[in-house]
Amino acid sequence: MQAAEARAYAWERDLDLVEAAAGSDPPVCRALDYGKWRYAEERKLRETQKRQAAGQVRLKEVQLSPKLSSNDDAWKRDRALEFLGEGAKVRAVVKFRGREREHPERGRDLIARLADDVRDVGRLEGMPVAEGRTLVAVIAPLGAAR
After folding, report:
1. Architecture (CATH level 2) of domain 3-54
2. From the first residue on, what is the mean pLDDT of each consecutive set of 10 residues in the chain (146 residues)?
3. Where exactly are the structural domains of the chain?
4. pTM above threshold 0.85
């Protein structure tokens, strides 16, 4: 169909003439309602993005200190339980300052105590790893660990 005929065809039916394959010779066009088509495409894109976001594992962080009081310890434990309950992994970080770096076992004990407190809903993915002035361990929810 010639370009003039195609435009007349689309005009009669109150449709838009949209180029489908620009690289072909001659160019291929379609007569469609462009606004409706674009809305449907955006909707498909949103749905695929939702599905991708649902499959991702989130990582939340709980920062600890070797000089944690019992009240702070309970608060951090509750936050970790909340994050694990949502299905997110928890990254437990113990930050050492000054002379605290001389006693990394305190940090390991702190992470072990946190892992023990949340053992009903999560477990350690590996041993704590020292990264400079910090000690890091990841606790995964039991549902994701299996």
Report:
1. Roll (3.10)
2. 88 90 85 93 92 78 85 87 90 91 88 90 90 92 66
3. 3-54, 57-145
4. no
